[in-house]
Amino acid sequence: MEKIKFRELTTKAGTTILAGKDEKSNEKLVAQVEKNEEVFHTAAPGSPFVNIKGKAKRGDIKEASIFCAKYSRDWKKNKSDVIIHRFKGKDIYKKKGMKIGTFGVKKVKIIKVKKKDIEKHD
């Protein structure tokens, strides 16, 4: 069985953030999300699913949003602000017939990640 590796980031607060690298790792990432953990994905298709492990501490939401935006197709193509969807693990669902790495989400909060914040992390 192949070992799936995630992108990993430790925030300034010491929290671990995981991100998928492709549809297979996104599938595995979502499978390990706890129901109250924060998850992020761009509004546009083509981004990693990003998961804050445990309870988010001060600043973690912003860092996770930037991390998600930085590796998105939207950022690579447009190099401008990126709209991120933030949601809880319990709000993610998968319907029969949805392709690998694709999920539905019930409740979404919208975060706009500024171009200058992403560039600082490049």
Helix content: 25-40%
Please state the CA-atom Rg, rounded to the nearest Å: 13 Å
Low-pLDDT runs of 5+ residues are none
Task: Note the beta-strand portion.
Answer: 25-35%
Terminal residue distance: 33 Å
Structural class: alpha+beta
Mean pLDDT: 95
- What characteristic shape results from the CA principal axes? globular
Please indicate the count of domains: 1
- Sketch the topology as an H/E string, one letter per element: EEHEEHHEEEEH
DSSP summary: helix tally: 4
Number of strands: 8
Main sheet properties: 6 strands, antiparallel
As laid out across the biggest beta sheet, the strand order is 1-2-4-3-5-8
Characterization of this structure:
It is built from four helices and eight strands. The protein has 122 residues and is α+β, with helices and mostly antiparallel strands. It has one domain (7-121). A six-stranded antiparallel sheet has the order 1-2-4-3-5-8, with helices on both faces. The chain has a two-stranded antiparallel ribbon with strand order 6-7. α2 (60-70) packs across α4. The termini are far apart. The mean pLDDT is 95.
